[in-house]
Design a protein that fits this description.
By secondary structure, this protein is of the alpha/beta class. It has 17 helices and eleven strands. Helix 10 links the parallel strand 7 and strand 8.
């Protein structure tokens, strides 16, 4: 029964919980047992909640008392460590926040609790979300469940690995330049970056405020949609939060599985996001997925987005500049780590010693770069120019969406690479986000979806779907339609083919 519970989708678990065929305590215990069994190898979690079982018991009691509960009530969920939780440490993968417990919940975490989901714990990540592999976590890397010698993506590799390894049916991630979609691509999971402002950032430890977006990680499009329905919507605590009334993303996903959702759909293949440097097996699986869409009645068109060529350059000026500003708050005075030089020191000396000890090399690299880009005499040449490129990228998206309903590209240029392969080459690491960065610069929604295994190495490959701003529901419909076609080919989900650390399915 325990294995059956951890391999169920969140939607299946929710149905059985609602029908009282299983209890939330049983589902939660099964996942806690799974974490105990395999997380010593995976290291997806930085902290496991001590309150998970008592929370599950309270959900069971409420259900037994006849309370009207939400669709995901009683379903366990993992939370990326970038999100504040009042009852668990929130470190953002950094030593400078080691042991820090915030006095409040992030809005998305509060919404999880109000919807009666059961937090399992906090997942590992690259420090302050700076990285594409979790190798920059101050607490050691997370490993890919498909191959323990390979990375699970980043910065949200912990959330993706937890879902892929059946340690959690759902997880929350954050996506600044691909940190949900790229881990989804290399672990065979589904990840969604919502429209900027569609999900509250209040209580998410900021990296780059104009780029960060919280979103769901799951094993199916419907599961991601169900979680998105819980966390989305307007939040007065977030000045960038959209006041829109959003449709049900779960209904959009269900509509996508009716066999008619892809007919007449205009699918734009972005020429600039599928070129030199892409692994042959990634391109092969991507081309096969596009062919499946065409066979289902979609119209395939090639679109040009010439400014995408400069997206990485612009991104790695905008992000470090905003990170330099956001991370200035970690000053040893108000919260977090404090290192006092031998014999004492001034406030400036304590601050310098604390930041030297508390920040890792990638964080320091980006703070230095961002501070330089914002300095007098260089602001217009670097940060200002990058923002102009950002505007050109937004215009390219607008032009592309006049020709296509959705845009597609590989979600990552390669499958999961081996640990250490790119750690000493920051530029090579940055190129992992070449396909995902444009969506963050433009604020449009993007989804990562597994489309098969690369023939060279047998590792997962993902496709990225993008839609105009505020059209998140369209991605769930199209994503579910493509997922249905793929599952018919595979005879089940992609994760049914995974080694999965001894899980029998």
């Amino acid at each position: 029964m325990s294995t059956e519970l951890i391999t169920m989708s969140a939607a299946q678990l929710a149905e059985k919980l609602a029908a009282r065929e299983i209890s939330s305590v049983e589902a939660t215990q099964a996942h806690l047992n799974r974490i105990a069994d395999v997380d010593g190898d995976i290291h997806a979690f930085l902290h496991v909640s001590e309150a998970a079982l008592s929370t599950a018991a309270s959900v069971d009691a409420a259900r037994g008392g006849g309370a009207q509960l939400g669709p995901l009530a009683g379903v366990p969920v993992a939370i990326k460590d970038v999100l504040c939780t009042f009852d668990m440490p929130s470190t953002s993968g950094s030593k400078i926040l080691e042991g820090y417990i915030p006095p409040y919940d992030a809005t998305v975490v509060r919404k999880l609790r109000e919807a009666n989901l059961v937090p399992l714990g906090k997942t590992n990540m690259d420090e302050f979300a700076m990285g594409s592999s979790t190798e920059h976590s101050a607490y050691g890397p997370t490993k890919n469940p498909w191959d323990l010698e390979r990375i699970p993506g980043g910065s949200g590799g912990g959330s993706a690995a937890a879902v892929s390894a059946f340690e959690a049916p759902l997880a929350l991630g954050s996506d600044t330049g691909g940190s949900i979609r790229q881990p989804a691509a290399v672990t065979g999971s589904v990840g969604m970056k919502p429209t900027y402002g569609g999900v509250s950032r209040y209580g998410a430890i900021a990296l780059a405020s104009s780029l960060d977006q919280v979103g769901p990680v799951a094993r199916s499009v419907l599961d991601a949609a169900l979680l998105h329905d819980v966390i989305g919507g307007y939040d007065p605590h977030d000045a960038t939060s959209l006041t829109d009334t959003w449709p049900s993303f779960a209904e959009a996903a269900r509509a996508g599985r009716n066999g008619e959702s892809l007919k007449g759909l205009r699918v734009g293949v972005v020429a600039e996001l599928n070129g030199e440097g892409f692994q042959a097996g990634v391109r092969q699986r991507f081309d096969e997925a596009v062919a499946l869409l065409a066979k289902a009645g979609a119209e395939i068109v090639e679109v040009a987005a010439p400014s995408f060529e400069y997206a990485i350059s612009a991104y790695y000026l905008i992000l470090p500049a905003e990170a330099s500003s956001n991370l200035a708050k970690f000053d040893s005075v108000r919260f977090g780590l404090r290192v006092t030089p031998e014999g004492g020191g001034t406030v400036e000396e304590v601050m310098a010693a604390t930041r030297e000890a508390g920040f890792g090399p990638e964080v320091k690299r980006r703070i230095i770069l961002g501070t330089y880009a914002l300095s007098a005499g260089y602001y217009d040449a670097y940060y200002g120019s990058a923002q102009k490129v950002r505007t050109l990228i937004q215009r390219d998206f607008s032009a592309a969406f006049e020709k296509a309903d959705v845009l597609v590209s590989p979600a990552a240029p390669t499958t999961a690479f081996r640990f250490g392969e790119k750690l000493d080459d920051p530029l090579a690491m940055y190129l992992n986000d070449i396909t995902t960065i444009p969506a963050n610069l433009a604020g449009v929604p993007g989804m990562g979806l597994p489309i098969g295994l690369a023939p060279e190495d047998g590792l997962p490959v993902g496709i990225q779907l993008m839609a105009p701003a505020r059209e998140d529901a369209r991605l769930y419909t199209v994503g579910a339609g493509l997922e249905t076609l793929l599952e018919e080919q595979w005879g089940g989900s992609l994760l049914a083919q995974a080694p999965a650390l001894g899980v029998e399915r």
